[in-house]
Amino acid sequence: MEYKLQCKQNRKFRKSILDHRRKKYLRKRKRVCEVNAPENSNSICYRIASAGTSTTIQYHEEQLNLGLPEYMCQYCGALFWYAERIAKYRNGKKPIFSMCCQEGKITLELLHPPPQFLANLLQYKGSQESVNFRKNIRTYNSMFAFTSIGAKVDNEVNKKPGPYVFKISGQNYHRMGSLLPTNGQRPKFAQLYIYDIENEIDNRMRAFNSSDEIKNINRNIVRSLLEMFDCVNEIVKAFRMVRDRFRIDDYLPISLRLIGDRAENRPQYNPPSCSEIAGLIVGDLGVADRHRDIVVEHKTDGLKCISELHPSFMAMQYPILFPYGEDGFRIEERIDYIRRNQSDLRVELYKGIKDAIVAGDVDGDAFIPEQKAEDRPDIVSRVFKMKLEALMADIKNGTYFGKIVAEFQKRGLPHVHILVWLHANHKFPSSSEINSIISAEIPNKNIDRIRYETVSKFMIHGPCGLANSKAPCMAKGWCSKHFPKEFRTETLMDENGFAIYRRRDDGRYVTKNGINLDNRFVVPHNLRLIVKYQAHINVEWCNKTRLIKYLFKYVNKGPDRTRAVIEDNWLPGDVRSVRQFKEVDEIKKYLDCRYLSAYESVWRLFQFDIHCRDPTVERLTVHMPLMHNIVYHGSQDLSDVLCRYNIEKTMFTEWMAANRMYDDARELTYEEFPTKWVWHQDSKVWTRRKKGNRIGRVIYVRPNSGELYFLRMLLNKVKGPRYYHEIKTINGIVYETFRAACDALGLLGDDLEWRSALEEASHWSSPFNLRQLFVTLVMYCEVGDPKKLWDDYWELMSDDILYRLEEMLGIRNLKMPRQDLQNYVLFELELLFNKNSSSLSQFKLPVPSKILPEDMDNRLLREETEYDVDALRLEHSKLFSGLNEEQLTIYCAVVSSVYENKGGIFFVYGHGGTGKTYLWQTKIARLRSKGKIVLAVASSGIASLLLPGGRTAHSRFKIPIKLDDFSTCEIKKGTQLARLIQSTSLIIWDEAPMNHRNCFEALDRSLRDILCTEETIPENVFGGKTVVLGGHFRQILPVIVGGKRQDIVNASITKSYRETRGSSEHKPVQNKPISGLPEQACSGRLGGTCACAAARNGCGGEVKSERSPQLATEARRLAAVEQPSRHG
Fold first, then answer.
1. Does the predicted TM-score (pTM) go above 0.85?
2. What are the DNA helicase Pif1-like DEAD-box helicase domain coordinates in residue numbering (predicted)?
3. Which residues lie across from 71 on neighbouring strands?
4. Could you read off the pLDDT of 270-317 as tens digits, one per residue?
5. Potential cystine with 487: which of 44, 98, 505, 1014 (Cβ 3.0-4.6 Å)?
6. How far from 242 is each of 178, 202, 277, CA to CA, in Å?
7. Are 502 and 510 in contact (CB under 8 A)?
């Protein structure tokens, strides 16, 4: 009773204030209506809500004008537009609104007015200081914030035209340091309230590294804000209290404890006292609730995260919004809400509603002149919602495109994607009919002035390309939206269903940023729509299944980032991608992929629809007798579960029950039933439909599901069955199985059922899923003629291939011969069959006519196979002639190991100048010229630059920075890097002694894991790959911080378990003096020591260096060997 009385008194008090403000607002609005529109254009409400004046032009198109908000919530007094009322089908004089307070269910305390100085700064018609403050308000807020913010900020969004948007992604963190900065560090954030306060203003301004930010900051504003916070902000007072303690010469180390629990009898939005906020802890911390409290230590390294559940969380990050240090919220509020609303919990409470919805501050002054769109995301979102509803009403009424049968929309603020199906009688197959609803040209400026200005303002792309290479749409040197288009005298439809619109070279252009843009830069649109709504509305035509599936993929791709839990380098359509899924934290992945701006945050707070369909689709379940699913708790007794009321009833069984009770119900198939009947899940009963529209879709059943699949086929044909046996009754004959009934109806034979399965799935399934379905049908469903099924449906399974290649290679309008495209699909199918221990040939299906470059969409592989083979062949010929005896010995041993797939470790020992790099270059040129892959790495970045295509070992193999005896490289099976390593023939590692032995052991473990197959030996050194290590031990050995001599020796590669198992000894062999050789032959080395010790598959040995006829013969044989150009 006391609570209700308090709420009633609050409402009366608010109403008296709101009545006064409403009268003031209406007087202002009357004056606004009496003057011309251009003089009112400063009002943010006027500029956003009205699309222009309600002027009828030559083509009888009225520009939409929503006017100003004239209606008030009867519970809290918030202002609304009439179009925002609930129950829009009612036209009452007293409309009801629920967006603000949920029809009186939410009561918030009135906000305290800001301090006078801050109020003056927030005025839109204030002084120059006010203009400076509002322009740099985020910088001023950061100057006085106690905590830092950590988030990924999307700066790309502001490169596009439109209002400024602050957009972040991922988990949003707030961190706080210690009370005092560590030695040598500048004070930041909360430390600025305690440390070196004599220079506090300078310290705050120096906290920003950007000179531009410092230049825009007004020192007087900083000083005045500092004085204001010292006087009114209780959190500031708590930190000043710590400052006073540090002024004492002899003080003990102290900590500041920001208390999480507040006094329960204090009103929520009243500023807490300093004693409620903080307490000092002298000496040891002792007992404290570290989860709920914030304990700021005396002096520590690093930052600590602040719990978002702390009452002071918001006030510490946003002191400008909470100048008194008010509590943002308390977690006990939810319990209090549940206690008061136990009888009705269907209404969700808006958390932080006061931050986003203008509920308490509802007078006419809320709509302030000079405001910009970015200042009021709430108004922008609300007006966008009203315009969207008006647009959908126009589309549904057939005003612009004719009669429609369904629509689909996906909201991705600040825009919306809409897919519309037109009625068969209202489709436009001819070019002239498409031109009547979609235009891609600039109107005549002299005849259609309004249309010309609208197209110029909203529907011109660019400038981009050569005129503006830094445009947001530019990617890899060309426009990602494929502008400019080509001139075309007539509209055409290409083979994939894409419309190529008419764009005549008529000399019309629009000047944008000083550049003339003609019809090639016009975004397709409907002229009547963009004139009415004064907005960018891109209208495209599609009339083929494959295009609709492509559009659905785009429509469903989500707000800005996908939330699919798939590795970044996942290859769509490749069966091996199944192995590339990562085990991830799904919540973290969701947060990492979610991008939120102010507009989307407000949209969600208002609980506007993110996704909707019209008409609604009813998913119809189907099951065999007594084979439906039930849900129960694991601890429940099964006998109790079976005794539940209506547990035996399902949507499917009750459909047959309705057929038994009502004769008119028997005139409908199962799929047609929801159009006339409504399913009530709570009572499990079908009732007659009185209003609304809904269509049914029977859930998909896989073809290998046996009788259930044939039951589903019959449901599309049989009307009004009352029992299961009536479904399989054909012409009075009750068949024993559903399959037999399908056969009697002519649904089987000549693989009709499998054709039907592929045909149905092709309308909504991706090509990759279609290929999987084809493999399932052929392997498990007794397909009579797999070859004919392939011939009829292979094109549907190829829709994604060209698209993937275009995206991967960055090639526009990529063309592939029909035979090559078919060959690619066969290769994809072969991979799927192989996964199931089968093959295409086993079912007498065509096999790929040639070995496809299955990894052509692997960027890493493409980088290693794009070398100029002819140039490498010439380079090798030159380098090979310059090898000395020792180099030739090593060359022959390594190349033989590669060609004979022997694998093993080779260590080439020699100090600087002995020709190791020359040897590397010769072997690399030889193998790469034959189409083989060589991975050249080095221990340092400088050394890697001397190797053709070289990289550091840590970068190439993802070797962890922190290593131990059990570490592995961060390479997962099935990734692009793993597939690159599988295709690699040779690994060269220069300056190897500089690396810790754990680096080699980690790579060894990873390669054995990646390359392990049934044919390989698990204990093969480096998985059986040929690995050449080079260097000498007179250079820098592994660096061990603070280590002694024995520690450094123990970290050396010579102490690796692989070296001890793989090689019994390493003996250098001296080079003999060089004489009698031509100058060209001497260019490859500078003399010295060079040796090679080999270890293959665990058997050690050394390569002798004596020149022999056999060695010369081996060198000639290797030089003459011709291998296929394919890598491997």
1. no
2. 883-1057
3. 80
4. 555 544 444 444 443 343 444 445 555 544 555 555 555 667 777 777
5. 505
6. 12, 21, 13
7. no
